[in-house]
């Protein structure tokens, strides 16, 4: 096994898969932080802050000199942040709000090493077709929405609601690979 190049501060299996897609070597050291927007904090500032806090919390916990990567993905509707649903009712309300409309997905990635910290943000516009209450209930029963921002997964059954996407597909799934590659390069980690 080659030496690891950095630590991933995330429990998200999607983020691990996306980094593996680029052939990177890393270990997983998930961060446990409070994920709650501050009053009057914009979606962009919140996503950036969460990605950075995840990276910093893991760096402080493990005390490694290697870079640490954190990320955060949020669905944003009319400026309101939709994180992961609390329960079934919350998920059904999110899906009803997203039905037949366009929303944005804010996906931030942060890298820290020593006292150095950099953050990048990707914003993607996603338009949904109609989601009937019956379809939303069946979708919840599939188990897919429970651990995903906005209560959907574009990479799974949720793809059937997606009429169009303008931006970063990997960003919607959980880690914008264009920005991530740029960030890794800035810390001397090459993907090619
Ligand atoms: C919109 C969308 C989100 N998601 C997922 C990506 C993220 O895992 C999750 C958003 O929650 P996050 O809080 O960004 O991440 P997480 O709690 O899963 O993992 P960690 O904090 O440990 O890094 O939603 C999808 O998988 N597909 C989608 O289409």
From TrEMBL:
One of its GO terms (biological process) is nucleotide metabolic process. Transmembrane segments: none annotated. GO terms for cellular component: cytoplasm. Its EC number is 3.6.1.9. It is found in: Cytoplasm. InterPro entries: ITPase-like_fam, Maf-like. It catalyses: dTTP + H2O = dTMP + diphosphate + H(+); UTP + H2O = UMP + diphosphate + H(+). The keyword Glycosyltransferase does not apply. The record marks 14, 73, 155 as: Important for substrate specificity. The keyword Hydrolase applies. Its main location: cytoplasm. Coiled coil: none annotated. Keywords: Cytoplasm, Hydrolase, Nucleotide metabolism. The active site is at 72 (proton acceptor). GO terms for molecular function: dTTP diphosphatase activity; UTP diphosphatase activity. Its cofactor is a divalent metal cation. HAMAP family: Maf (MF_00528). Belongs to the Maf family. YhdE subfamily. Nucleoside triphosphate pyrophosphatase that hydrolyzes dTTP and UTP. May have a dual role in cell division arrest and in preventing the incorporation of modified nucleotides into cellular nucleic acids. This is dTTP/UTP pyrophosphatase. It comes from Stenotrophobium rhamnosiphilum. The lineage of its organism: Bacteria, Pseudomonadati, Pseudomonadota, Gammaproteobacteria, Nevskiales.
